[in-house]
Amino acid sequence: MNKVVLIMAILMWISTAIQAQESIIRDIDYRYLDTLIALAKKNYPRLKVMQEEEAISKSAYNTSKLTYLDMFNGSYIYRPRNRPAVSELNPYFINGYQVSVGVNLAGLIRKPSSVRQAKRSYRIAQLETERFEAELESDVRSAYYSYLQSINMLKLRTQYAQDSKITFDRVQNQFERGEAPVDAYTIARSELSEANSSVIQAEINYLNAKDGLELLIGVKLDSIN
């Protein structure tokens, strides 16, 4: 009879566990999740590096457009007007200010290509940042769901351990009075030991899930209002 009671208790716990797992979606707080994602995008070191790389690429692209002027060079000379246009000291036909402009044709030809390359590099940096942000957002969502699951399982296994303790105490009292066989006592004790072990494992899973989520968002969960 005691074996039947134990088996029924186990089946009831399994049924409760299935229902709890099916209802985890109701525990999701999407506003809280959005806060976690925003914190990750603000604090995650790798994303900061990629944003800096994107800024460098943007600066290089803007600079490349401005350096078109480097293809041109100018100079001027001045010859006094009160001297003859042609003499040994002033062998020029024209006096006054004289301006000259030079063009680096090779550089002028190459420049559009280098500007386009800088623009492509900047665009690649933008796309890489966008891709990483999307991946980071997905990682935060996954970590949050795992965190919720770990809380759910910890509560579930804690409740099961408490129920197992009640069952064990009852069977132990019956066994001590000679009202329960030794195998029923052994099963109850084994079930309690397994339940306690599952609580410890659930606690470890909870701590790992919490640490993993905090690593992504860069702050402690307890500090979030």
TrEMBL record:
Residue ranges that the Swiss-Prot or TrEMBL entry lists as coiled coil: none
UniProt signal peptide: 1-20
Domain of life: Bacteria
InterPro entries in UniProt: OMP_efflux, TolC-like
Location relative to the cell: Cell outer membrane
Taxonomic source organism: Parapedobacter deserti
Protein family: Belongs to the outer membrane factor (OMF) (TC 1.B.17) family.
Upper taxonomic lineage: Bacteria, Pseudomonadati, Bacteroidota, Sphingobacteriia, Sphingobacteriales
Name of the protein in question: TolC family protein
Keyword entries, A-Z: Cell outer membrane, Membrane, Signal, Transmembrane, Transmembrane beta strand, Transport
Main location: membrane
